[in-house]
Amino acid sequence: MDTLTLNLEPGQDLHQSLHQLASDQQLSGFVLGVVGDLSEACFQCPGQPQPTRMQGVLEVITLNGTVSPQGVHLHLSLSDGACQVWGGHLEAGTTVHKGVQLLLGLDAATAQTAPISQERVELAVLPGCPFCHRARQLLERQGIPHTIISVESDSVFEACQKRSGLRVFPQIFVDGDYFGDYTALQQLHQSGQIESLR
Questions:
Q1: In CATH, what number does 2-111 get?
Q2: Cα–Cα distances in Å, from 49 out to 45, 86, 102, 119?
Q3: How many Å apart are CA 170 and CA 56, to the nearest integer?
Q4: What is the largest CA-CA distance in the chain?
Q5: pLDDT given for residue 118 in this prediction
Q6: What is the mean pLDDT of residues 142-159?
Q7: Is pLDDT of 114 > 60?
Q8: 171 in Cβ contact with 184 (< 8 Å)
Q9: Number of H helices, E strands in the chain
Q10: Cα angle vertex 19, ends 151, 55, to 5°?
Q11: Per-domain residue ranges for the chain?
């Protein structure tokens, strides 16, 4: 099974982003993991005539279900500021607060042709890793579009290890293939060729 990491930015709609990704790239699969928070949530509770809407800083607990070009069917659970847990069928209007990171498992039929990321460059980082921080700063200073893969779970770690064959970080991928570590990125910059990553 191949995986796809998706990082959503503040203000993006969780439901619409997944629907758009599956439609544009003809992806079918399911959600393996999620971490992040929301500023607004919209979900359909069982037996209720209208969706429930909540606002505030809402921590995502789980997101389960499937994505396909025909649509998404996802169930969300989240915690509010009082640590009360809510949940139901995910609806459009669910907005990312600081960020949401998702790991998707792709069906074999679509994994062969699916791009690994929305950007050419992916940077897999461990929280607190100084060389990961330097690599991220270098990409940001040079204005190179990139996707951050934050390695905060065993499943994400194993997915990165499978792609690179390595257990050290940062790991940089270009067009889905392993490129190298911070040293390789720095050497590319010093040679004046970092623009080739755009």
A1: 3.30.1330.80
A2: 9, 17, 30, 40
A3: 33
A4: 62
A5: 60
A6: 86
A7: no
A8: no
A9: 5, 10
A10: 75
A11: 2-111, 121-197
Residues 2-51: pLDDT tens digits? Answer: 888 899 999 999 998 998 888 877 889 999 999 999 999 999 988 888 99
Q: What number of other Cβ atoms are within 10 A of residue 27's Cβ?
A: 21
Protein fold of 121-197: Glutaredoxin (3.40.30)
User: Given the structure tokens 């659970």, which residue do they identify?
Assistant: 77
Q: Which residue type sits at 61?
A: I
Q: How far is Cα 195 from Cα 147, in angstroms, rounded to an integer?
A: 16
Which tokens in the block code for residue 78?
């989240």
- State the pLDDT at residue 115: 44
CA 116 to chain centre: 11
Q: 144 and 197 in contact (C-beta within 8 Å)?
A: yes
CA distances from residue 164 to 2, 67, 124 in whole angstroms, order as listed: 13, 26, 10
pLDDT, position 109? 62
